[in-house]
Amino acid sequence: METARLIVREDGADRLTLGRLAHRAGVSKPVVYDHFATRSILLIDLYRWLDTERIDTFRAGMAEGERTPTETVALLAEAFIRCAADTSSEVPAIGAALAGSEEKAAVLQELFDHCVRMFVSVLRPHSAVTPDELDRRCIGLVGAGEALAAAAVHGHASEAQAVAAFTSLIQGAMRTPAT
Predict the structure, then answer these.
(1) Which end of the chain has fewer surrounding CB within 10 Å, N or C?
(2) Directed axis angle between helix 39-63 and helix 18-25, to 10°?
């Protein structure tokens, strides 16, 4: 995966082929084909690996030390928007290379679900809503965060404005409804 990531970083996603990966990794083509039957599978596995790495790194960082609910929400909002709006990493290039792939929709749903689980794990200690309600709210939050990040990427909002709006949405989602 590291070698595949380097190829995308240095040469672009279009240059990532199974043969090129074998050559750069110093292994024979059959070794690479044993791991990845097709280029699409390689791209999907790399996309999944990079996304999981980002989320797991964030989750580990959030587990270090105790934070107030306000600090937690602010860190979550900023990290999510910066990550989702990052057009300089390998992730957008790989996503673009997968455009039109039938498998991409399933992988995107899997990664969305992984992100929702991360939100739930980060927010649960600070939430008074039921676990099922928190799950539903986090689904909405991740969708809203993606939309705000896209607005920042397309110039409809600055990154700071997107972070502020997302922070506000997360804070609102953490409140229990009045009875």
Answers:
(1) C
(2) 60
